[in-house]
Amino acid sequence: MNVQKIADLDLSKHPLYSLVRAEGSYSLYTGGMDSHLLRVDLNNLGSILRQNPLLDQDPEFQKISGLATSIYTLLEDPLKEKIWLGGGSGILQNLDQKTQTFHYSLNLGKSPIYSLAYISENLWIGLGNGQIVLLKKEIIQELNMGLDPKLVKIPENSFAISKEALRVIALKPDQSQLAISGKDSQIRILNPDSLDVQFTLEGHSFPVFSLAYSIDGKYLLSGSRDASIKIWNAENYKLIHTIPAHLFAINHILYHPNRPYFLTASMDKSIKVWGSDDFKLYKILNAEKTGGHISSVNRLAWVGHSDPILVSISDDRRMIFWDFEF
Strand, helix or coil at 119? Predict the structure, then answer.
């Protein structure tokens, strides 16, 4: 395996926390503590995504103003028309990708919004007070048609999962179950239809920041501030293996879309590539070895399809593009 850095963008004056690849506008959106959202245009990367030569110019990016708060999480809607932004003050904003303007905002209270997920066309919102707000598709449709956001009765659509912050939501590929975790270190497996908690997984000694189901749905991976990855059987949710993966917290776990690998991004400033079948370490991307990030790596995303490029963002305010050869 050969991995090469092909672009390194200094985008911001503050740490970048959130990242999403948007198919609707063929863009990357990222944000953090800035007063604006950043959109990176991928249209001029067409030849690179097909052939993966070295970049001869940096991607273009623009600043989108109108943020009501800092951004902790981003999500594209199923129709690939809107981008949801979860903020540090309990504010959920909706961005129209065609006009690049904010359509509306919802105030969900004072607790930060750390996680967003679409499940059966309903938007699940994980809050810093341990609550889930379930924004049903009917309400979303009414908001898109002009319903005043102040008329949305948020308390009637919320329920408690924990007494502490919810940091991550992951959906099983067949959509039969979802995993939720956060500050209390427990992982809860829910039925998305009945909302029943089917399993409660214990094992991490510190908050869980990252969850990911394998592409085939056989495994659930969890990453924690205890610097370990735990591999769970996604049928009976028994613990299979624990990997002492990093030196500090694991912020994100991302599977390769079509090869047997997954990646972890950590507060220890590194990205690591692991085998999804044997769980062995195959590559380390960091400042010393590959010219990587010099601060906490917070999120990862793949761009492209057959031979995708990896994108990473960090507390060092940079976005790095990585080319993989297997």
Answer: strand
Residue 178, SS3 per DSSP: strand
Q: How far apart are CA 254 and CA 308, in angstroms?
A: 13
Q: What is the DSSP letter of 51?
A: H
User: Are 29 and 84 a contacting pair, CB within 8 Å?
Assistant: no
Enter the pTM of the model: 0.94
pLDDT in tens, 231-276: 999 999 999 999 999 999 999 999 999 999 999 999 999 999 999 9
Q: What is the rounded CA–CA span in Å between residue 199 and residue 203?
A: 13
Give the integer Cα–Cα distance in Å for 42 and 251: 25
Residue found under tokens 């092909």: 6
| Alpha helix segments (H runs only) across 208-295 | 287-290
Handedness of CA 40, 82, 126, 105 (dihedral sign): positive
pLDDT score of 48 more than 80: no
Q: Is 265 exposed, middle or buried (0-12, 13-18, 19+ CB in 10 A)?
A: buried
Q: Show the CA angle centred on residue 165, arms to residues 249 and 229, nearest 5°.
A: 30
CATH of the domain at 13: 2.130.10.10
- Helix and strand numbers (H, E) in the chain are 3, 28
Give residue 191's domain range: 2-325
Gap between the terminal Cα atoms of the chain: 5
> What Rg, from alpha-carbon coordinates, does the chain have?
19
Question: Cα angle vertex 274, ends 270, 277, to 5°?
Answer: 165
> Locate tokens 């898109």: which residue?
144
Number of domains in the chain: 1
Tokens encoding 284? 């380390």
CA dihedral of residues 160, 143, 42, 73 (deg, nearest 10): -20
* Structure tokens, 82: 């809107």
